[in-house]
Amino acid sequence: MSKPIPLTSLAGTAIAAVLILAGPQSASGQVPAACGDEPRLECRKSEKSGFALKQPGGKGNKLTWKWIKGAATSAADLGDPTAAAEYALCLYAGGRTVATVGTAIPAGAAWKALGAKGYKYSEKSALPDGVAKVLLKAGEEGKTKIIVKGKGAAIPVAALPADAPLLVQLVNSENANCFEDIYAGADLLTSDATEIKAKAGPEDLLVQPAVIKPAAPLPAQTAAEAGVPEFVGAPATAAPMAPLILPEHPYLAPQGDSRIHNDAENSAVYNRDGPLGINPTITTASMLETGDIVSVCAMSAFTAEGLLVTSCIRLATQPSVFGQTRLVALDPVTLDTLAVAPVAERPIVQNSAGGAYFSIDNNGRFVIGAPNNSIEIWELNRAGGVAVFMRRQGWDVSGVLAPGDLLQDTVADWEGNIWFASTQGIVGFVDPNDGSVETFDIAEGLQNSFAVDASGVYIVSYDAMYKFSVAGDGSVQQDWRTPYDNTGEGLTQPGSGTTPTLHGSLGDLVSFGDTALPKINMVILDRTTGAEVCVTPIFRDNESGAENTFATYGDEVIIPNNAGFTSSFGPQNTVEPGLERYSVRGDRTGCDPVWVNDTSIGNSAQMSTTTGLIYGWGPDPDVTGFDAYYFTANDYTTGDEVYRVYAGDGRPFNPVLGQPHLGPDGAAYVGTLEGFIRIADGD
Fold it and tell me: Strand ranges (DSSP E) for 354-475?
């Protein structure tokens, strides 16, 4: 038995190899029985299954798949193979490409109806493709059964041994219903040049996924060795606030674990605990492989079972200079690596394009804009005692992008269209139902991610803030464009470095930062019209910058200062301190300051409504000669620093202005240039 790990928010491989025991598209033009290059989505699972393929050659070839105690299925769900429903059995494996062959289980007289119980198939000759018997038995949950048996030289020849994980699917041409199981780890009893034998059962889900790479701590000086305080302030007392309740996005995971800034609106607010600073513990893990210069893991999400998932961008020098984007699953306590999926090689560019951002959909799958300009859907499963990533679907949009352009971000809208934006300003969407693509060229560069609500998507370029939606004719519609003051230099790009944040007690505002001089402005616009609500200078003259999304709580806006940032690899203690909170007036005639903290060193902001704390991460600017990084906690009501705890020093602890994420266990997590860090309360 395999189980997709759903998100509240292995070495695994892309499913590139396909052995298709199937045939061409049915003449009726219905859903084809043939297995495509990619497996189907939303297939039904079983509690127990077994797969065997023997191919010594000729008459000795045998095929069996037993799918037992399956999901509830009616006879109608099976289609009608006595008439037109052609069936196909498909095996997908990582790493190889195997040619497709003819129809395995044609519709017609070889099928017999079993009334409300389903259908059976018998073809003594085992032609055309070796399948001799099939049983499709409908039933309630845990009662459905499928058996497929084949024999002889007509069975299509697979390229063996096949790489794990293995995915077996039974599909039909009459409807989208399909049945599957996944085999990996201990499920694979035999896998050699002539035979595959695998079985799966409920015990798969009772075993913790195996560790494939134990965590190796990041190199760091202790606080005493560095000559800095280990802890400043005092442990906090939680001051719970009303939870931030956002509209539920129908195509994204629950609030808190669907986007890099927590949710569809980029609120940077969690309705769960964060560390209170009680006997804090720091756990670290290097994410570097042999030859790596960096491996930046910017985004974190957590599965319903508590596994930590991140995307990491590698830059390596061995065996040659190359970049790569990977999905990685970690144990949330030890930070041991449980699964790795190489998504694609990545050009060597210093930005977040090509996979730093990903979304988590309503089925717990990862939607990522890969560096080969393919929008891809990946899934994390458990099978045979291991965690396995599987690529389930993809759409190549490189044809609508110019050479050298890269996907910056992808996100689903409220209709299920998957939007994308590129670094050179192509904004568009893919209709996942038919793969059609619509685009709009804003002819302006960008390097930030989307915000999305029920009415459209929002993104900021180097020159303006935009809102887009789907027009009545199905094309991309620019709803509005609002330019901003970009006379100053951006910190990591020519324009705004802030991803837009949607907020407001009326659900009516979108906020970001411009690059005005001598102070940048907090810019707040009306979501419907793009009209200015307020443009407010923030921080200090010539010490003012923002590279992170704002944290928002209704009409309240919290902004960390990022001025002084020079480069990803340079000293970070040049970043100016500062944290400010503003409130948008109820009548929308402007914004007012609530508090200003000119000494706060956290250069990012994530808030917990259950603790009432704003969490950040940054180096102490008063420490010279090296970067001494602290995890920080400030009081939401007053802005005062409550505590800070020393984590480590130097490049291994540099998140390049990235923010902490809060896990369901109350710990905080930070991805850096070289690894991953966990901060938690102790005993």
Answer: 358-360, 366-369, 374-383, 386-396, 407-412, 418-422, 426-430, 437-441, 451-453, 456-460, 464-470
DSSP state of 653: G
> What are the beta bridge partners of residue 463?
none
Number of residues that make up the chain: 683
User: How far, in whole angstroms, is CA 299 from its chain's centroid?
Assistant: 8
* Token representation of residue 289: 């492989």
pTM of the model: 0.89
DSSP β-ladder status, 269-270 and 606-608: parallel
Question: Which long-range contacts does 291-297 make (Cβ < 8 Å, 24+ apart)?
Answer: 291/316, 291/317, 291/318, 291/319, 292/316, 292/317, 293/317, 294/673, 294/674, 295/673, 295/674, 295/675, 296/356, 296/656, 296/671, 296/672, 296/673, 297/328, 297/671, 297/672, 297/675, 297/676
| CA-only gyration radius of the chain, Å | 27
Phi/psi class of residue 135: alpha, beta or left (left: φ > 0; alpha: ψ in -120 to 50)? beta
SS3 sequence of 136-196: EECECCCCEEEEEEEECCCCCCCCCCCEEEEEEEEEECCCCCEEEEEECHHHEEEECCCEE
Residue 648, strand partner residues: 629
Spatial distance between the Cα atoms of 499 and 486, rounded to a whole number of angstroms: 15
Neighbours of 568 (CB within 10 A): 17
Residue 306: which region, alpha, beta or left (left: phi > 0; alpha: psi -120 to 50)?
Answer: left
For CA atoms 93, 298, 681, 283, the dihedral sign is positive
CB 394 within 8 A of CB 375: yes
At 642-668, the pLDDT tens digits run 999 999 999 999 999 889 999 999 999
**Angle, CA 8 vertex, CA 267 and CA 216 arms, to 5°:** 95
Highest mean pLDDT among 56-60, 126-130, 303-307, 532-536: 532-536
The beta strand positions in 448-566, using DSSP E, are 451-453, 456-460, 464-470, 476-483, 501-503, 509-513, 521-526, 532-537, 551-553, 556-560
C-alpha 156/C-alpha 522 separation (Å) is 63
Q: Please state, in angstroms and rounded to a whole number, the distance separating the CA atoms of residues 677 and 670.
A: 5
* Tens digit of each residue's pLDDT (9 = 90 or more) over 317-371: 877 768 889 999 999 999 999 999 888 888 887 778 878 889 999 999 999 999 9
- Do the Cβ atoms of 314 and 292 come closer than 8 Å? yes
